[in-house]
UniProtKB/TrEMBL annotation:
Residues 6-192 form the Phosphoribulokinase/uridine kinase domain. GO terms for biological process: CTP salvage; UMP salvage. One of its GO terms (cellular component) is cytoplasm. Pathway: Pyrimidine metabolism; CTP biosynthesis via salvage pathway; CTP from cytidine: step 1/3; Pyrimidine metabolism; UMP biosynthesis via salvage pathway; UMP from uridine: step 1/1. HAMAP family: Uridine_kinase. It comes from Peptoanaerobacter stomatis. InterPro entries: P-loop_NTPase, PRK/URK, Uridine_kinase, Uridine_kinase-like. Its main location: cytoplasm. It catalyses: uridine + ATP = UMP + ADP + H(+); cytidine + ATP = CMP + ADP + H(+). ATP binds at G11, G12, T13, G14, S15, G16, K17, T18. This is Uridine kinase.
Length: 207
């Protein structure tokens, strides 16, 4: 079996990582492809009170169960299936259910803190950073968090100023230097996405 290709897509909140990940997933839907979100690996906070969960810093590397994510990635790379945890953003913790993910030739991993971590970097064959201006990112985040994550304007703005922005500047922005490819304006950058698709096709062809 040829080693699966592990592609990491990172960038700040609201940068358009999911759009890029979905575009690549769609382009290879007739191949064997799977997608994993780093969000699945937010630590289980079921033992904490709701107030404690609200005050957690979700933009710090310690918020993630990175050991479990790395173990799962290694299993997929070996050709084994995994059961990933599912995260509930309205309850700020893991759900009880898990989801089965089968091994695939192309594994797309998407998340905010992939390149800051050396062990994750070492596993990635292709490191993509989606680079979008902060004003666009916060607007997208505001809309998304209100519509999909049950948040208020105040909570999104306060969280952004107190935690999301400082953590972005400390951990995410500096991790850009580890990227193989930096895509400006994420999901809308068709030229960049087509170039990445071409490079993945080439990898699949070369034995
Ligand atoms: N987060 C949160 N509440 C939680 C857990 C995480 O608000 N209980 C937030 C963190 O603050 C972090 C964000 O979730 O900044 C990570 O998701 P994000 O990158 O915004 O979403 P994606 O859809 O993965 O990315 P994109 O918008 O780039 O597509």
């Amino acid at each position: 079996m040829k080693k699966p290709l592990l592609i990491g897509i990172t960038g700040g909140t609201g940068s358009g990582k999911t759009t890029v990940a979905k575009a690549l997933h769609e382009a290879f839907k007739n191949n064997s492809v799977t997608m994993i979100m780093q969000d699945y690996y937010y630590k289980d906070q079921g033992h904490l009170s709701f107030e404690e969960r609200l005050s957690t810093n979700y933009d710090h590397p310690n918020a993630f169960d990175t050991e479990l994510m790395i173990e799962h990635l290694k299993s997929l790379l070996k050709g084994d299936s995994i059961r990933v945890p599912i995260y509930d953003f309205t309850m700020y913790t893991r759900k009880k259910e898990t989801v089965l993910i089968e091994p695939a030739d192309i594994i797309i991993l998407e998340g905010i803190l992939l390149l800051e971590n050396e062990k994750i970097r070492e596993l990635l064959d292709m490191k993509i950073y989606v680079d979008t201006d902060a004003d666009i990112r916060i607007l997208r985040r505001l809309m998304r968090d209100m519509k999909e994550r049950g948040r208020s304007v105040d909570s999104v703005v306060n969280q952004y100023l107190d935690v999301v922005r400082p953590m972005h500047l400390q951990f995410i922005e500096p991790s850009k230097k580890y990227a193989d490819i930096i895509i400006p304006e994420g999901g809308k950058n068709k030229v960049a996405i087509d170039i990445i698709i071409g490079s993945i096709k080439q990898y699949l062809r070369n034995d």
